[in-house]
Design brief:
Number of strands: 0
CATH topology of the domain at 257-383: Leucine-rich Repeat Variant
CATH architecture of the domain at 257-383: Alpha Horseshoe
CATH superfamily of the domain at 257-383: Leucine-rich Repeat Variant
Distance between the termini: 112 Å
Low-confidence stretches: none
Number of helices: 24
Length: 383
């Protein structure tokens, strides 16, 4: 019976192609008969699609959309492996025009390396309201990165707050790419449990996960574990480190300076730079003084590293703070401040440095002269 049906379909399709004009009464009648043959009509129609003009394509796609069911779906799936772009486009058009099949069948096509994935994703987007989000999640872990991104894009478009607990649980998985996509969904829900989950990801081994977690937290409001973020100022990946700097500045935690002390003493210039970049935004005279006091008992090379970082990278806020410290009661603080100003050569410090030439500590007065000489201002000549 199937054989006879296939023969009828081929003959009807041949008749339509002979007539050429699909809008003629004879062609319309042949196409109507063809649409009643179910799956038998699909192969000859797909073959004809490869060379169809615009009017023919519309007519053939109409037949395909009428014939598409769960039973005939496999034929369309095979058609999506065709190299001919017209055939693939026609099938995708028919699939988006019909709702007489289970769209979950499309997800299985993503596992086939020969299937046109872009076409499948396009059809899935048109069927988004008919898809089950948990089926999408199941498939998302099994496909290649490009398709994974597309599937998670679909998931993001239909995810609701009710899914937050399930998404948080999935963050314990090992698929780093999936975790990044889930983070990009989770941050939309500004809840304490979401922030705690993202803070845990700051310690992930994969830098993409750490970056995504930092970006997500930066777009959320509420309490954030400043210490967990601070640790990433030591991150080996510069992009992660830069994002951590921005987030530390945004958080502006009261204990920021306490955390920065250890970072400012680090052997790595890049890590010390991160600490100073934070200070450039949140530092003041009191915080800089606290830093200098804490490192005053360290070995000279530790003090030197910290002061050098403050001098070379410090912005206007750091310089302003250091200028205030030139007149501090603590001799060690004054010495550290004058050394920093020797490197910055900031003309705003001229008046402060002139006063410092009269400091009772010979080191401070002598280095104040050196700093003024480096700046080269005639205003300092009398002093």
């Amino acid at each position: 019976m199937k054989f006879i049906s296939s023969l009828r379909a081929e003959r009807l399709m041949s008749r339509v192609m002979e007539l050429g004009e699909v809008e003629s009464p004879a062609a319309v009648k042949a196409l109507e008969k063809l649409s009643t043959l179910g799956g038998s009509a699909v192969p000859p129609v797909l073959e004809a699609l490869a060379h169809a003009d615009k009017k023919q394509t519309v007519a053939y796609v109409d037949i395909l959309s009428q014939t598409l069911t769960d039973k005939t779906f496999a034929l369309y799936g095979e058609g999506l492996k065709e190299k001919n772009e017209r055939v693939v486009a026609g099938i995708a058009w028919a699939m988006t025009s019909s709702n007489t099949y289970n769209p979950s069948l499309l997800l299985e096509l993503l596992h086939d390396p020969d299937t046109d994935k872009a076409a499948v994703i396009s059809v899935l987007k048109h069927n988004i309201k008919r898809l089950n989000i948990y089926e999408l999640l199941r498939v998302a872990y099994k496909v290649e990165p490009h398709e994974k991104a597309a599937i998670f894009g679909l998931i993001a478009s239909i995810a609701t707050e009710d899914m937050v607990p399930d998404l948080i649980e999935r963050m314990e998985g090992k698929d780093s790419i999936a975790k990044v996509h889930i983070i990009n969904i989770l941050f939309r829900y500004n809840k304490p449990e979401v922030r705690r989950c993202l803070e845990i990801q700051l310690a992930d081994k994969n830098k993409m996960v750490r970056q995504a977690a930092l970006s997500a937290l930066a777009n959320m409001e509420g309490d954030i574990n400043a210490e967990a973020v601070m640790r990433l100022l030591r991150d080996p990946d510069l992009e992660v480190q830069n994002k951590a700097v921005d987030l530390v500045i945004k958080i502006n935690h009261p204990d920021t300076i306490k955390y920065l002390v250890h970072i400012l003493k680090d052997e790595s210039e890049y890590i010390r730079r991160a600490a100073v970049e934070v200070l450039n935004e949140v530092g003041d005279a009191d915080s800089i003084k606290h830093l200098l006091e804490v490192i005053s008992d360290e070995d000279w090379w530790v003090r030197s590293r910290a002061a050098d970082a403050l001098a070379k990278i410090g912005g206007p806020k750091v310089v302003d703070a250091v200028m205030e410290l030139i007149g501090d009661e603590d001799e060690g603080i004054r010495r550290a401040a004058i050394e920093i100003l020797n490197v910055t050569r900031d003309e705003r410090a001229i008046d402060k440095l002139i006063s410092a030439t009269k400091d009772k500590d010979w080191w401070v007065s002598e280095r104040a002269v050196d700093a003024l000489a480096e700046i080269g201002s005639k205003k300092a000549t009398p002093a």
